[in-house]
Design a protein that fits this description.
CATH superfamily of one domain: NAD(P)-binding Rossmann-like Domain
CATH class of one domain: Alpha Beta
Helix content: 25-40%
Distance between the termini: 28 Å
CATH architecture of one domain: 3-Layer(aba) Sandwich
Number of strands: 39
Number of helices: 30
C-alpha cells in the first residue's frame, strides 16, 4: 500500500496545467475554468507554448520555465508527450500528476510513463481519467461538467461517466463530498491506495467505490479491510453476469461464478455492496444516521395497512424477519390503540392516527427487546397532521436509545416538512416503504460483514495436524507423471491427509479384479469407472450402487466398460474403483469444493450436493483462509443450512464436523498450492459426522505459492526460543483467537510497563480495540507473541509488533514483555525476530519512539544497532535501524514521509 504524496494530490499548494487552453470545450479549457471557479487559493500555472495567457492567467511555454515547482500537475496533451512531461515535472519538483490524456493502452508508453514517475518519486492518477475534486480545498482538477459541494463522502470510481452521473445526482440531492476521484486506468494510484488514504482521513465519513475490475486482489482486500474497520465502505461492482465461461473439471469450478467471488470478497472485507448510484448515497446516509444493532428483526408501525403489507413482502423475500411482539408489548398497545388495531406486527394503528398515537406506540415498541429496529410508515390523510406525527416520532425516538428508527413519510408538500423534521432528529427517512426496507436490509448485511471483521473466532479442535508431506507427495507424483486430474483414490488420499473422513476406495484394473476386491471389502459395494477423461461418472452410466455379490460386480463392470466405449470412444479406461457401501440413512448430500478465480485466486464453495447440484444451484462461496466462525457463516448463506438443523423426525447434522471440513479444505489450499480445483460430492452429513463418498482434484504445476487474496497465518514463522534460565517459549505470529490471552496479558503488566508501551495507563480494552491488535492483516502488519504452551490455555508473555508504512520502506515497531520476565532475554529475542522478518521482506528501516525514562528499551535498541535521536517537541526518543540502502528515488520520496506515530515502548 502507498499513501505517499497523496496529500499533494488532494491538498496541493500549487497546480500546473499542462495543455491549458482557451479553445472552447477542450479538456484544457474546461480544467482551467473548473480550477478558477472552484475557489482554489494557490498559484495556478497554465502551460501553453503558443499563448501568453490562458483564461486570463499568465501562461508559461514549458515546465522548465515555471517560476515555482508545482506540487500537483494536470496533463491534457497528446499521449506520446506524456512520459516526457512527467519526467520534466519530476525534475522540477512536482509530487503528483493527474493524467487526463489516454494512452490507448500502449504498453511502451505505459512503461515509459511508470519509469519516469518512479525515477522521481512522483504519484500518478490515471491516465485516461476525469481528474479529481476536493471541495474543501477548493480543488476541481477535472473536466467534469459540474462541481461538488463540501461534504463527508469520498467517491472513488473506475469510470469517469459514473463520477459525472454521481455529481449530477448529488447536486440535485444536496449531497457533498470530501473528494471525488476518477481512477482511469489506475496505472499507479489505484483503489487500494485511496482506501488507505480515505480510511485514515478524519474529514471522510464514508467511502463510496465504483469498481469494474480489481487488478491486485491482495492489496485491494488488505486496504479494504483496514478502511472498513474505521468507517463504512460501500461498493457498486458492475458486471454481475458470468465473466468469460471456462471449462471446469468439477462442480466447484462450474458453480463458483466470478460475481459470487466478488460478493464473497466484499463481504469478507466488511464492506457493503449496492446496485445503483442513488442506493449508494442512500446507504451511506443510513449508515451514518443509524445506531448499530445486532439482528434482523423489524417492527413496522403504520397508519396504512396496505403499505405495511407491501413492506413486509419485500422484507421476507429478501431474508429479513418481522419481529414477534412480546405479550407485555401487545398488552400495552391494547391499552393505547383503538380496538380495531392489527394486534400483530405490522402494527396498523388505523388511518385516523394522530401524532400522540404514533409517539405512544413507538415508545412501546422501543421498549420491546424482541425487535432490532422499528420502521414507521405514514400515509397522508385529511384527518391527521403529517407534521404532527413526524414530531411525535422524532420526540419518541430521541428519548430512547434502545433500537434505531427508520421512517417512510409519503405525500408531497406536507411530507417534505415532516421529512425535514425527522432528518433534524437524526432519523433516516425514505420516499417509499420499499426504499426503507432496502435500507434496513443494507444495515443488516453491513453489520454481519462487520462482525466477520470483529468477532473472535473459536480455536480449531486440538490435534488437527494435517499430514502435509503425504498430501504433497501424492500431488507431486501425479504432476511428475503428467496427470493434472487426480483420480478418486488419489484425491481421497489427499483429503484423508488433512483429516477429512473418506470411504475406503480401491482400484481394480479389470472386472475380475473388481469382483475380488469387492469380496475383500464386504458386500454391498459401490462400483465406479476410473477414467481421467470422464468428469462426471454418472453421465456415462459409470456408477453402480448396492452390488450384492461378485457376479453382480463383474457384470456391472463389463457393462460400464461397454457404455464408455459407445458413448466416448476416446476416453481412457484405467479400471474401476470399488468401495463398501456407506449406510448413512437420512444423511444430507453436500458439496464441498474449491476453484481458482482469475482475480481473487482460490475460493471455497459449499452447498447442497448430489447429481443435480448445478440444477439446484444452492451454493455460497468464501475466500480462504477460513476459521470455524467464517466456515459457519459460509454454511449459513445456503438453503441447505436449514435442513442441516433438523426437521420432523430427522435429527440435526453435526454442524461442527461440516465446518471443520471447510476449514480443512482451506488449510489444504494453503499448504498445497498446486491444487487449483477440488470437488467432494457428495459429502454425507448427519448426526454422526461427515463422510466423503466421492472426490476429484485438479492440480497444476504453474501456480504461484503466494496466490491467496488474503494472506494466511504464516505458520513457517513459528520458532522456539530459550531464555537465560533455560525456559523455552514458542514465538509465533498472533492469531485472532489470542484475544482472551492478550487481555489477560495486559492485566498482568505493571503500570510503568503499560505506560512505556502505550504512553498512558491502559488497563482494559474493549473488544473492538483488542480485535484490532489480534486480528491483524499479515500483509501490512506483523505481531509476534511469546507464549508458554506448557500451561493450558497457553499464556501470552510478550509481544513485538511492526506496522509497515510508506511502500514497505519503514516498519514502526512496539514491544512489551511481561514484567516478571525482564532481564531473561525475551525482549531481545522478540525484537531480533521482528528485525529478521523485516529484513526478509525488504523493509528499509525499523523505527520506534521511546519515552526518555525507558532506559531498558533505549539500552536494548543501542545494543541491536539502532541509532537514536531526541525529539524534544514530541517528548520522545526516536530509535531507527537501517536494514538496507535506499535508492535515489527512495531518498527523494522520503521528503514526504509521514511522521512516525507514538506507538513504541517496552
Amino acid at each position: 500500500m502507498s499513501v505517499r504524496h497523496l496529500e499533494s494530490l488532494f491538498h496541493p499548494s500549487s497546480i500546473a496545467v499542462v495543455g491549458a487552453s482557451d479553445r472552447p470545450r477542450s479538456v484544457g479549457a474546461v480544467v482551467m475554468q473548473n480550477l478558477l471557479s472552484g475557489g482554489f487559493t494557490g498559484p495556478i500555472l497554465p502551460i501553453n507554448p503558443g499563448r501568453e495567457a490562458v483564461a486570463g492567467v499568465l501562461a508559461y511555454p514549458d515546465v522548465a520555465r515555471l517560476p515555482i515547482a508545482p506540487e500537483l500537475a494536470v496533463i491534457a496533451t497528446p499521449p506520446e508527450t506524456v512520459p516526457g512531461l512527467v519526467g520534466e515535472l519530476g525534475r522540477r519538483g512536482a509530487r503528483a500528476v493527474a493524467i487526463l490524456s489516454g494512452l490507448g493502452r500502449d504498453p511502451g508508453l505505459q512503461q515509459a510513463l511508470l519509469g519516469a514517475a518512479e525515477q522521481h518519486g512522483l504519484r500518478l492518477l490515471g491516465p485516461n481519467c476525469l481528474g479529481l475534486l476536493a471541495p474543501e480545498a477548493g480543488l476541481n482538477a477535472s473536466f467534469a461538467h459540474t462541481g461538488a459541494k463540501t461534504g463527508e463522502l469520498a467517491l472513488v470510481s473506475q469510470s469517469g461517466a459514473v463520477c459525472t452521473a454521481a455529481l449530477d445526482w448529488a447536486r440535485r440531492s444536496g449531497v457533498g463530498f470530501s473528494s471525488v476521484v476518477s481512477l482511469g486506468e489506475g496505472l499507479d494510484i489505484d483503489a487500494g491506495d485511496l482506501l488507505d488514504h480515505f480510511g485514515a482521513d478524519p474529514k471522510t465519513r464514508a467511502i463510496l467505490l465504483y469498481l469494474e475490475s480489481v487488478s491486485d486482489a491482495r492489496k485491494f482486500l488488505s486496504a479494504a479491510r483496514a478502511a472498513a474497520r474505521n468507517k463504512p465502505v460501500l461498493v457498486i461492482k458492475s458486471g454481475r453476469g458470468a465473466e468469460g465461461g471456462r471449462a471446469a473439471a468439477s462442480h466447484s469450478g462450474a458453480l463458483a461464478g466470478a460475481d459470487d467471488v466478488m460478493d464473497a470478497a466484499i463481504r469478507r472485507a466488511g464492506m457493503l455492496r449496492v446496485e445503483r448510484i442513488d442506493e449508494l448515497f442512500a446507504a451511506a446516509e443510513t449508515l451514518a444516521r443509524t445506531r448499530p444493532f445486532r439482528g434482523d428483526r423489524l417492527a413496522v408501525l403504520t397508519n396504512g395497512g396496505g403499505l405495511a403489507v407491501m413492506a413486509t413482502d419485500m422484507l421476507t423475500a429478501r431474508g429479513g424477519r418481522l419481529a414477534e411482539l412480546a405479550p407485555d408489548t401487545r398488552k400495552r398497545l391494547d391499552e393505547l390503540l383503538p380496538a380495531t388495531w392489527s394486534r400483530a406486527n405490522p402494527i396498523d394503528i388505523i388511518g385516523d392516527a394522530p401524532g400522540e398515537r404514533f409517539g405512544g406506540a413507538l415508545r412501546i415498541l422501543l421498549d420491546d427487546p424482541g425487535n432490532d429496529a422499528v420502521l414507521v410508515i405514514h400515509a397522508p390523510t385529511a384527518i391527521a397532521s403529517s407534521e404532527e406525527a413526524a414530531g411525535a416520532v422524532a420526540d419518541a425516538a430521541g428519548r430512547s436509545h434502545a433500537h434505531p428508527v427508520l421512517a417512510s413519510w409519503l405525500g408531497h408538500d406536507e411530507a417534505e416538512t415532516a421529512q425535514r423534521r425527522l432528518h433534524a432528529a437524526g432519523i433516516p427517512t425514505y420516499d417509499t416503504p420499499e426504499d426503507a426496507i432496502a435500507a434496513f436490509l443494507h444495515l443488516v448485511e453491513f453489520r454481519r460483514n462487520q462482525d466477520l471483521l470483529m468477532e473472535t473466532p473459536p480455536s480449531l479442535p486440538f490435534g488437527f495436524e494435517p499430514d502435509v508431506e503425504s498430501a504433497r507427495r501424492t500431488v507431486l507424483e501425479a504432476l511428475a507423471e503428467g496427470h493434472l486430474l487426480l483420480g478418486e483414490p488419489e484425491s481421497k488420499a489427499v483429503l484423508s491427509a488433512f483429516g477429512i473422513p473418506c470411504v475406503e476406495t480401491r482400484v481394480a484394473r479389470s472386472a475380475e479384479r473388481a469382483a475380488a476386491l469387492a469380496s475383500e471389502l464386504g458386500f454391498p459395494v459401490a462400483l465406479k469407472i476410473h477414467s481421467p477423461d470422464v468428469i462426471h461418472k454418472s453421465d456415462v452410466g459409470g456408477v453402480a450402487l448396492d452390488l450384492g455379490d461378485t457376479a453382480a460386480v463383474a457384470e456391472a463392470a463389463t457393462a460400464m466398460a461397454g457404455r464408455l466405449r459407445a458413448l466416448d470412444p476416446k476416453a481412457r479406461l484405467d479400471g474401476f474403483t470399488v468401495q463398501h457401501m456407506a449406510r448413512r440413512p437420512g444423511a444430507h448430500e453436500l458439496l464441498v469444493g474449491a476453484a481458482t478465480d482469475p482475480v481473487f485466486g482460490p475460493v471455497i464453495l459449499f452447498g447442497q450436493g448430489g447429481t443435480a447440484v448445478e440444477v439446484i444451484a444452492d451454493r455460497a462461496v468464501a475466500l480462504p483462509p477460513l476459521n470455524l466462525h467464517l466456515a459457519r457463516e459460509l454454511v449459513r448463506r445456503t438453503r441447505v443450512d436449514r435442513l442441516l438443523a433438523g426437521y420432523r423426525d430427522r435429527p440435526p447434522a453435526d454442524l461442527d464436523a461440516v465446518c471443520l471440513t471447510l476449514v480443512q479444505i482451506s488449510q489444504l489450499l494453503i499448504d498445497i498450492p498446486q491444487v487449483v480445483e477440488l470437488d467432494v460430492n457428495p459429502l454425507l452429513a448427519d448426526a454422526d459426522g461427515v463422510l466423503a463418498l466421492d472426490a476429484r482434484i485438479r492440480v497444476s504445476a504453474d501456480v504461484e505459492r503466494d496466490r491467496l487474496a488474503i494472506r494466511p497465518y504464516p505458520r513457517e514463522l513459528e520458532e522456539t526460543v530459550e531464555l537465560r534460565g533455560g525456559r523455552r517459549l514458542l514465538v509465533r505470529p498472533i492469531r485472532p483467537e489470542d484475544e482472551a490471552a492478550h487481555q489477560a496479558f495486559l492485566h498482568r503488566l505493571q503500570p510503568d510497563d503499560i505506560r512505556f508501551r502505550f504512553f498512558n495507563l491502559v488497563r482494559e480494552m474493549p473488544h473492538s480495540q483488542m480485535a484490532r491488535y489480534t486480528q491483524i492483516d499479515y500483509e501490512r502488519e506483523m505481531a509476534f507473541i511469546a507464549t508458554d504452551t506448557a500451561v493450558e490455555p497457553p499464556a501470552t508473555l510478550g509481544v513485538v509488533r511492526g506496522v509497515f508504512i510508506s511502500d514497505n520502506r519503514e516498519a514502526e515497531f512496539a514491544i512489551i514483555v511481561q514484567s516478571d520476565l525482564k532481564g531473561q532475554g525475551l525482549g531481545r529475542a522478540l525484537l531480533e525476530k521482528l528485525v529478521r522478518y523485516c529484513r526478509a521482506r525488504g523493509t528499509e528501516e525499523v523505527v520506534g519512539q521511546v519515552l526518555p525514562e525507558n532506559r531498558a528499551m533505549l539500552s536494548l535498541a543501542g545494543r541491536l544497532g539502532f541509532a537514536s535521536r531526541s525529539l524534544p517537541q514530541e517528548g520522545v526518543v526516536e530509535v531507527r535501524l537501517q536494514l538496507r540502502e535506499r535508492s535515489d528515488a527512495g531518498r527523494r520520496r522520503a521528503r514526504g514521509r509521514p511522521q512516525a506515530t507514538r506507538s513504541s515502548g517496552r
